[in-house]
Design goal:
FMN binds at residues 55, 101, 151, 155, 225. Belongs to the NtaA/SnaA/DszA monooxygenase family. It is built from 15 helices and 13 strands. The protein has helices at residues 34-46, 68-73, 86-92, 109-123, 137-140, 151-169, 226-235, 246-262, 284-295, 299-313, 335-342, 351-361, 370-384, 397-413, 426-430, and strands at 5-10, 50-53, 97-103, 128-132, 177-180, 185-187, 197-198, 203-204, 218-221, 238-241, 271-280, 365-368, 388-392. The chain has an eight-stranded parallel beta barrel, surrounded by seven helices. The longest helix has 19 residues, at 151-169. It binds flavin mononucleotide.
Amino acid sequence: MTLQHFGWFLGAGFGVQGWNDPSYGIGYDWKQPPVYQDAARLFEASGLDLLIIEDGVAVPDTYGGTAEVNLKNARFVPKHDPLPLVPYLLAATSRIGIVPTLSASFYDPFTAARLLATLQHFAGGRLGFNVVTSGSDLAAQNYGLDQQVEHDLRYDRADEWVDVVRQLWRSWEPGAVLEDTVNGVFADHTKVHPINHHGRFFQVRGPLNTVPPTEEPVMVQAGASGRGQDFAGKNSDVVLALASTPERMRDFRESVRAVAAAHGRNPDDIRVLFVVNPILTANAEESASVRAHRAELTQAAIDEALQGVSYLSGVDFKAFDLDEPLPELTTNSNQGTLDNFVKSAPSGSTLRDILQARANKDGLAIIGTGDEVAEHLAELADAVGGDGFLFTGQVHPAHVHRTLDPLVPALRRRGLLRTELGRGGLRANLRDF
Ligand SMILES: Cc1cc2nc3c(=O)[nH]c(=O)nc-3n(C[C@H](O)[C@H](O)[C@H](O)COP(=O)(O)O)c2cc1C
């Protein structure tokens, strides 16, 4: 059995964690760092390579044209900015990679390069950054636009954004900093260069006004459409993905690796990590009852599913009759997310068919005892022949313990999960195997 890389994708972002789960008890405040620090310590002790913190910059009101379902159930909102959390997580840990999300559409590249350079110095090489292009018009309207820039153009812009960020990180040559106290020379000015970037989208003079870190932060990305995969394959160290079958996982990974090779990269430098949702139970009886509960298409379950896909795709799914075939849909928002949803059932299916197919298949859920979930992951790893997985879920300690306490030893017994993280930083850990 080959070792896999594991991480945790915090899909609720720096936001509400299990606010109405009765088993959570009291005493944890999602608005403060300790809940995330506790989780990060546990992830590190468990041998997870990285913790990725999702982000989004709007209060969704796509579903039915109102924010009611989102605010009532705390879905995608409220959410703090993930970047100020990073130093707290770094201070609480010493080996795990910390990966905040930031938007190439709304951060200008100089600000991003400087912020990430600063944080990477704090991180000692453990920083990553999840680059998103923020598909939502609602987000764009918070930044002075009437609507979001066209899908592929967003990625063209993001390509240039990444290029500028990296140029700025390279604007100080190695050896530029002398700190020569004898001759009174801090830095050799001949080794610090303006980048004078005049591109299609950005004009940036440079150089960066701080010392770039020796190890550039690890770039993470989750583009799923053709253009998104091209961006990810060209630029990313880690690609995040959702896929519902081993075949789709294998195909996606092959496709991203082929793009990377076409851009002259070594595909083995990329790690493609698939999101899975382990739901740990005590025995077969509990698993059966969890499955039965999840397969029920209650109004609450319908709202839950549709508010999510409505926001992420920018298409109001409340506008469709549940029992009519769904029309052809396209979006300027997250095309890949919309395609994934619609293709959950054969073409011509009704919305109810799609929801039922997803509920029956349980989406990304892997339900069972520690040994059963680990065995499932081992089979998946074999079938995909890939790099690893990201667990998703809230980071309330009750949930993290419930998930990892039985799962970690079961994964280790199968030789899937490392016993210790190295101290060389996130990129080094990702390249250990
Ligand atoms: C695992 C995963 C995590 C993602 N995290 C974020 C996020 O934090 N913020 C965000 O705006 N988009 C996020 N996305 C959306 C992607 O960046 C991307 O827009 C989406 O997968 C659709 O692909 P496309 O843009 O190529 O159509 C995520 C997607 C996936 C699959």
